[in-house]
Design goal:
single chain; alpha+beta; Multidrug efflux transporter AcrB transmembrane fold; Alpha-Beta Plaits; 4-stranded antiparallel beta sheet; 24 helices; elongated
């Protein structure tokens, strides 16, 4: 580190020039290429066999991401409204990227006509009010149409818009266009639009809004904080300049690698501003200590940089290790969050040890005053006295608080509610709730029933599928269902050979005849049966977004299928909401592994820095206690361990150990200067306690900016980050000094 520090200060102009050139390169590339946003909840899905099966299902049966547009009026079954509904259905079907648009005026119906059957539109666009009044009871009471296309009270009509295979950006653009088209035709009718593509499109708008609000707010906060703490404008400007350069580098790198901003990486700029600001705070504090009143400021600054450099380096590496542990997740968005946060910390760490020292070495004039934040000195004196003279009480209070919080682990639950990502009063949530109340939920779960090629023609296959559908329809949360068995049963009931009831024919030839004469030409069939008739889809509409409820439903369907389906048949549940549920399960499984990775990596780094295995343990213990308390806090408060809250523990551990590294290193220096135990502890508190407290207060304030976010989990995450960092700070101010005074962990001179 000594040679590196000397090189930076000797070649400060060259260092600054190189950093500026790299920043300009990244800035231009970011301006030209831009950065994409992806609000899709599928970025939170775990990869693997389940995702592969889901994509295979999409290829075979079409995309399950359906846009559902609904209009509520006084009475759907009136001539003016039906004409409006037909006009809107055709407008939506004509949009580029729409595969099909289905409503009461386009869906087909099979009716008796003399001795035969005819296939025609369920409702003619030219139907009179009298004809519609006669149709109303039969349509609203028919499970093939009720809740799929019309509400049971006849006041709400739905248009189901099926999309062609499109890229994420195209899907979002089309969802926006569908919403605009529907609202332009609605007139005085109430409109609500939902479905996964709509959630994605609205999510993007909220993400852009958050980026434009939270990141600048964090930058302004940090600037004011540095200005308040050091009372020097140049310090504040250098801090913000270093952070801005780091953000340009990492965001441009994401752009060049083709990565997009997702719900998980949305917090990246604010997190990097907060975390990077803490390193910069320690470097600026050391520059202030080293150069005030120095006869040779450059030489003094070099010595100061040699001292603070290794601590800042290891502190940064521990945070990188924490984020790196998150990057081991099987969830793509979580992996990107850990990867790019870790890379961002590395970039800002590099600039903090190169650009910042080089710029400080070229500053003229000495800092305004040696001491700062004098009000904080009183508090630190009281903490020092508490540790020195009330040691047993300090231990007792620390252990009781830790034990009390950790006891909440027994109440910890793993659960993710994907609709709760949006605020309860948001248009997105309200539209989804209206759709559930008046029609059927916006979420789709599909059960793929498989057999041998041609199995769909067999009555046994269809009857078993119908039994599975009937069982599922009785489960809580299922609003509506549709499958090929419903259509076959309905046609059979209308045939002369049928008995007037919706039943599957006993004769395989009869089933084949139904497919050949009536079903094969209907485009809807391609979404319910695959090409070789070996698989059939049962599509369920549900309002289940809670992973616990989805897990319960999937488990129930799996158990029933294994117990009741005949040999040669099997059923598998899939759908975007099922993938997200699996991701929630992966969260729990990854907690132990990610924390273990973070612990081992951080321990090795600290042990190498201090050349002591025991010091490595010393740095971890006071920070493991708050992390354990964090999980207990989740249990006590009823906050679920979900994809957002699970990312905090490993990353926070790295941030917390940052404090311990600075405390231990400064205590060693203080012990060398003052043999008296009380004085050495006070020097440690005075020299490192102040910047450590101020840096952590800045961290807490920066994370609380997330309370301005449009996304509920981001707001909750910001609050939990703040609480966890505060707990780690208190532990490092009290528990760490207590440990340093023990015989086992006494820090050597």
């Amino acid at each position: 580190m000594s040679r590196f520090a000397g090189f930076i200060l000797r070649h400060s102009a060259l260092t600054i020039l190189l950093v500026l050139l790299v920043t300009v390169f990244f800035g231009v590339s970011l301006y030209v290429k831009g950065i994409g946003f992806n609000g899709s909840l599928e970025t939170l899905a775990e990869g693997g066999a389940d995702l592969d099966f889901y994509r295979e299902t999409q290829r075979s049966f079409g995309d399950d991401r359906v846009v559902i547009a609904a209009l509520t009026t006084r009475d759907v079954f009136t001539s003016p409204f039906i004409k409006k509904l037909d006009r809107l259905t055709r407008r939506l079907a004509a949009l580029k990227g729409v595969a099909d648009s289905q409503s009461l005026t386009s869906v087909k119906a099979i009716r008796r006509a003399g001795t035969g059957l005819v296939v025609d539109n369920l409702i003619s666009r030219e139907a009179t009010d009298q004809e519609l009044a006669l149709l109303k009871p039969s349509v609203t009471g028919d499970r093939l149409y009720a809740r799929h296309y019309v509400s049971e009270d006849g006041r709400t009509a739905a248009i189901n818009v099926f999309l062609e295979p499109l890229g994420e950006a195209e899907v979002r653009a089309l969802a926006d266009e569908i919403e605009r088209t529907v609202k332009s035709e609605a007139g005085n009718d109430e409109v609500f639009v939902s479905g996964v593509p709509v959630l994605d499109a609205r999510g993007i708008r909220s993400m852009i809004r958050d980026m434009l609000v939270c990141s600048p707010a964090a930058a302004v906060l940090c600037f004011l904080f540095f200005l308040f703490a050091f009372r020097r404008l140049t310090y504040a400007l250098l801090a913000i300049g270093t952070l801005t350069a780091g953000l340009v580098w990492i965001i441009a790198l994401m752009s060049l690698l083709g990565r997009q901003i997702t719900i998980a990486t949305l917090s990246l700029p604010t997190v990097l501003i907060a975390v990077g600001g803490s390193y910069i705070f320690h470097v600026l504090n050391q520059h202030r200590l080293s150069t005030t009143g120095a006869a040779e400021p450059i030489a003094s600054w070099l010595e100061g940089l040699k001292f603070i450099g290794p601590a800042v380096l290891v502190s940064g590496l521990t945070v990188i290790a924490g984020f790196g542990a998150v990057a081991s997740s099987a969830i793509p968005a979580a992996r990107d969050m850990g990867l790019f946060n870790g890379a961002g910390v590395f970039v800002i760490l590099l600039l903090t040890l190169t650009l910042l020292p080089a710029a400080l070495s070229r500053m003229s004039g000495a800092p305004a005053r040696l001491d700062y934040a004098r009000w904080l000195g009183k508090w630190l004196k009281q903490i020092t006295a508490f540790i020195l003279y009330r040691r047993r009480l300090a231990w007792l209070v620390s252990l009781i608080l830790t034990a009390g919080l950790t006891a909440g682990l027994v109440f910890l639950k793993v659960q993710t509610d994907y609709l709760a990502i949006f605020p309860k009063k948001s248009e997105t949530v309200q539209d989804a709730l209206k759709l559930h109340d008046r029609l059927a939920g916006a979420s789709t779960i599909e059960v793929i029933v498989s057999g041998a090629p041609g199995a769909v023609y067999k009555p046994e296959f269809l009857k078993s599928s119908a039994s599975l559908e009937a069982y599922a329809a009785r489960q809580p949360g299922i609003d509506a269902a549709i499958s090929i068995t419903d259509i076959v049963s309905r046609i059979n009931s209308l045939l002369p050979s049928g008995n007037g009831r919706d039943e599957i024919p006993e004769d395989p030839k009869q089933v084949k005849a139904i497919f050949g004469d009536f079903i094969s030409q209907d485009p809807l069939v391609s979404r319910l049966v695959n090409a070789d008739y070996s698989r059939a889809v049962i599509a369920f509409r549900t309002n289940l977004f809670n992973s616990t409820d989805v897990r319960r439903l999937v488990g129930s369907l799996d158990e029933w299928s294994k117990a009741n389906l005949p040999p040669g048949m099997n059923a598998r549940v899939t759908g975007s909401v099922v993938l997200l549920n699996n991701a929630s399960d992966a969260v729990a499984l990854s907690q132990i592994s990610s924390l273990a990775i973070a612990l081992v990596t951080i321990y090795v780094m600290i042990s190498i820095l201090f050349r002591s295995l025991m010091v490595g343990v010393l740095a971890l213990i006071p920070n493991m206690l708050p992390i354990a308390g964090y999980f207990g806090f989740l249990g006590w408060t009823g906050i679920s361990l979900d994809i957002t809250t699970s990312l905090i523990a490993s990353a926070a551990l790295g941030l917390a150990v940052d404090n311990a590294v600075h405390m231990i290193r400064r205590h060693r220096q203080s012990v060398a200067e003052k043999s008296d135990e009380g004085w050495s502890l006070w020097l440690t508190m005075s020299r490192t306690g102040k910047p450590m407290v101020l840096a952590n207060v800045m961290l807490i304030a920066a994370f609380l900016i997330f309370m301005l976010s449009s996304f509920a989990p981001v707001r909750m995450g910001g609050l939990l980050w703040a609480v966890t960092i505060l707990a780690c700070l208190l532990s490092n101010l009290v528990v760490l000094p207590l440990l340093m005074r023990t015989r086992v962990f006494g820090v050597e001179k």
